[in-house]
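Technical note accompanying the year-one report. For the benefit of new consortium partners, we illustrate the data format agreed upon in the data management plan: each record pairs a sequence with a structure-token string. No post-processing was applied to the example shown here.
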Amino acid sequence: MELNKLKSVLEALILVSEEPLTFGSMVLILEPEGVTKDDIETALSELKNKYDSDSSSGIFLLEVAGGYQFRTKAETAAYIQKLNIPKPSKLSQQALETLAIIAYRQPVVRSEIEDIRGVDSGGVLKTLLERNLIRIVGKRDDPGNPLIYGTTNKFLEMFNLNELKELPTLREFEELEKEYYKGGEQKAEALEPILQGVVTEPLSQKWSAEDENLIGDLTNSIKNLRRLEKDIFPKPIETIVAVPTDPNQPKVEGEDDAGTTPEGTGAGD
């Protein structure tokens, strides 16, 4: 199959796929036509470059959740919002905290999540399961056989991640907050690279009251994540180990076999 035809076929396949189309799926569909993996990689690379360099196009090709998907560009968001498209329901603060714990500590069981959050998480876990953001990956060999939770490809797709290694670190969240408090245009410059692909339109250089409220919510979420950091990434606990006494060392008068002075006596007794 010639390259131009292959690119048109891949465009069509990616466009009609409800979820990010994986490279493996492309191979299964096109290998019987004599198309090699190298051919597909070349076609995908050229398609990505085509949409990235074409300023007249309102879409771009994104590698996300282990596959490829067409997304609309941020500058078209204001026009897309005029369509009667139902807005996706937002995640509550409790759901975001639970999802963050699962994302960073998976595989994890419910009791571990509740130890960190300090509250019952059954309802939140049910909501995240229904929205296909987390999944049950198995059962732990403990009393009661508790369910083990992990994130899904839908989670990666929702947060514009291709793999879990792309998750931002808590240190990056701290740096984001520091940059925000510098004020002025530096706020937009600091936030825009990280929020690119998440916000629906480019950040303005002038911050309205609504913008300040949104950033305030983001800051509160970051603080909550930092509050959980000690539980998510616990520091090693230092333990004091008793050093056995040398059996060849002469015992001090008044000490027992453990090398301690009998209770109720002192050095001057």
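Partners are asked to follow this layout when depositing records. The chain has three domains: 3-72, 93-158, 168-232.
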